[in-house]
Amino acid sequence: MRVLCVDDDSSSRMMLRGLLVRMCEECDVLLAPSAEAAVAVLERQPVDLVVTDLVMPGMSGIDLLEWIKERRVETEVIVVTAHSSIETAVDAMRKGARDYLPKPINPGLLEEKLETWRELIDARREADDFHHALSAIGDDVHRTALEREQTISEMSAILEQLSEIVRVPDLEPEAVVESIGALLGRWKEAKAQ
To answer: Structure pTM?
Structure first.
């Protein structure tokens, strides 16, 4: 799981990175000192989870959240702030934040939330893998159906030709046998497909 920590305060950023690395050994933790730097990271590579401070110079955490939800719908966002209020929490959640945590971050709460997000991301990946597998199966079924339809069409044409040969009144028996033999050869080829 790739996590991007966004905070203009370097000590908060490093503290959050340390917590995430300890709690999630398989996490690849990236850092960004601003929302603008986070956008640059997100434009270069996919990120599963963004943990962003709310109040930063320039682009705010809410602005970053909106940018992510417009362009990277699959990326989850957690807003973290020392300036917490019910209004900012509600606003962040309405705009697509997965969660909202007050500073200072409670390590136990963060670990609990991280496990939930990891399960969600894993479930989403499994669903995507399942969808791709179903799509591939559907493509195979469609291709097979088209091949069978073509085979049936060819066999139908062969049967029609056999029917015409049998209806010819004065055809020599050798010619009938030869024609039927050739058509049966084509029949076997068509059937083998």
So the answer is: 0.68
